[in-house]
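Summary for the steering committee. The consortium agreed at its last meeting that each partner would contribute one worked example illustrating the joint modelling workflow. Our contribution is presented below. We chose a case with several input lines so that the handling of multiple components could be demonstrated. No manual editing was applied between input and output; the record is shown as generated.
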Amino acid sequence: DTEVTQTPKHLVMGMTNKKSLKCEQHMGHRAMYWYKQKAKKPPELMFVYSYEKLSINESVPSRFSPECPNSSLLNLHLHALQPEDSALYLCASSQGQRLGSYEQYFGPGTRLTVT
Amino acid sequence: GQQVMQIPQYQHVQEGEDFTTYCNSSTTLSNIQWYKQRPGGHPVFLIQLVKSGEVKKQKRLTFQFGEAKKNSSLHITATQTTDVGTYFCAGLGSSNYKLTFGKGTLLTVNP
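What follows is the complete predicted structure of the assembly.
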């Protein structure tokens, strides 16, 4: 199974809402990533978990809170977002030994709209 | 910080024509990866190049890594409508941990 799944596919939320994005992989990968992608732009790295520990936070605002409950799951908790946070949120996974040295498998993404 | 420039930003071709996209890094890279993202889709890994001067082929796609490991190219021979999408290069710097993505080249193919 070389699939990364993400739920929900679409999410519309108000600026005062709290919501969570979920990501799951069963490839035994020990590195998992959250990216944000705006239209016509490349993916922008937000967080990296390696062996279930947060290893990289690319100075992301605290209204985004990642969580890695186990080696197969990755969550992104959202609170008090701004309209400019509307984007496609992509989860990815890879082998964990050296970040960036292995191909990343991307999920289909959650398209988030903040109203 | 590390920058990866990718050109062209857009390329429109007639089906059957060739296509090339180029990436240039401001620093030497440990490796470079290529991804394809179809319209409305997510990035899909195509290939990774690691060695200086490396050339790899996948059917009609040819990938090259420069001798100085600072540039790379993707060439598609005889494009088909199924080649439509945005092609991203992503480089890993020698001293850092994350892939730096180029801005991508959007390829459209006229049948």
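Chain B has a mean pLDDT of 96. The two ends of chain B are 41 Å apart (CA to CA).
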